[in-house]
Amino acid sequence: KIGDYPFRIKKNINYKITASFGISEFPGSSRDALALIRDADMAMYWVKENGRNGTAYFKSKEIYPYTKKK
Questions:
Q1: For 25, which of 14, 33, 66, 70 is 20 to 30 Å away at the CA?
Q2: Under a CB-based contact definition with an 8 Å cutoff, are residues 53 and 19 in contact?
Q3: CA–CA distance from 21 to each of 9, 43, 65, 67 (Å)?
Q4: What single-letter DSSP state applies at residue 44?
Q5: How far apart are CA 41 and CA 5, in angstroms?
Q6: E-only strand ranges, the chain
Q7: Average pLDDT over residues 2-20
Q8: Counting Cβ atoms within 10 Å, is residue 62 exposed (0-12), middle (13-18) or buried (19+)?
């Protein structure tokens, strides 16, 4: 994950970056550009509310957490 590697910009100050992503698809679950952005945004906020620093996929009015396949 992105936040697993802190970095230093100034002496004695470490920074940690995290990222939350929402994914939607067009055509498919989203019927137009506005719906595409709205659906991806809803998935991103789901990630933020459920632990942050991850990815979720919006499909057919449902949000699914994304997990990396091994």
A1: 70
A2: yes
A3: 25, 7, 10, 12
A4: H
A5: 26
A6: 7-10, 13-15, 21-23, 55-59, 62-65
A7: 80
A8: exposed
Evaluated on CA atoms 20, 25, 30, 36, the torsion sign reads: positive
Q: What token pair was written down for 65?
A: 């957490």
Tokens of 1: 């994950």
pTM for this one? 0.76
Give the type of residue at 48: K
Q: For residue 56, what are the β-bridge partners?
A: 22, 65
What are the tens digits of pLDDT across the range 37-57? 999 999 999 999 998 889 999
Q: Where are the alpha helices (DSSP H) in 1-70?
A: 33-49
One-letter identity of residue 21: F
Average pLDDT, the chain: 85
